Model the fold of this input.
Amino acid sequence: MSLSQVRIWVCAASLVAAGALSAHAQGPHFSSHPGISVVASTVPANGDVNPYGMARVLQSSGSLVAGNILISNFNNSTNLQGTGTTIVQIAPDGTSSLFAQINANNLPGPCPGGIGLTTALVVLRSGWVIVGSLPTTDGTSATAQAGCLLVLDANGNVWETFYGSLINGPWDMTAWDAGTSADLFVTNVLNGTVAAGGTVVQGGTVVRLGLTIPAGAMPSLQSITVIGSGFSERTDPAALVIGPTGLGLNANASTLYVADSLNNRITAIPAPVTRDTSAGVGAIVSQGGTLNDPLGLTVAPGGNILTVNGNNGFLVETTPDGEQINKALLDTTGNPPGAGALFGLVEVQGVGLYYVDDASNTLNLFQ
Done:
């Protein structure tokens, strides 16, 4: 299927129907004085905390219900990072259920280090759910291992794993979904990071995984290509690791935006679906200003880029031309206020912006 044909793209940190975004940015997408409501707790029965990844279900299948939101947890009940094993499903009315609890001892393929579910979470139209794992044994970066991508069916069962040298600490993900095929875009944050012991290294990557999805069969991995490289990354005692995080595609997938967290900037990788070489860190779209450790990222209706800051709890709106035109405070907890609380974002046109707040372990709605 060519890029000119209609596709729907989904993102670990966002979800917007293809065609809903215009080629040119519009005015500010949100009010700087937000109305925020708590939709539901993200904590399942086993006590997992630290919600990271988000993805909205487009089509009902198995236990997946269209319009609901899946959320992955990074920490276990004792708050150790890289040990969360659950994905919860939350309806817009706040009804919550357990979608999956993944057992590291009962996997169909390798996942080096075990299970610690990250921000990398997508739901494909075919009903397959893919989530990243960056595991630890004790919640510290010293024990962090490469992890994998786990492929689950619509009932939360793991069918296969994607792993190997190009998948090393999968941190966030978005997808370009054609139904019978899909391209996954994944950031990796462990290339040389642990060995550097807190020193910044330029090893962060963005890789594209090409999948075919036969009817009635699990996805088949056809290729893995590095399309971005040289991103700054380092271990961190509070955040475990900091590196390239949020990813978002524009309307026709001609540009992949990357939240380059350590450099307080948004970069853009051209031709992400078709390129066969690395674009390095891509072109700098916007840097500094109100960007302060941007983590989650989504592209809003109209084409503007929404990011959430890891250092101060602000949502920032940036045009594709790089102008920062709006900001709103989403979280004031922690020290400093808003620090480390915001990751996943899901934009639902006509409803608002759903986001996870891992300071309160809740799914919130910003309108």
The first strand starts at residue 8 and ends at 11.
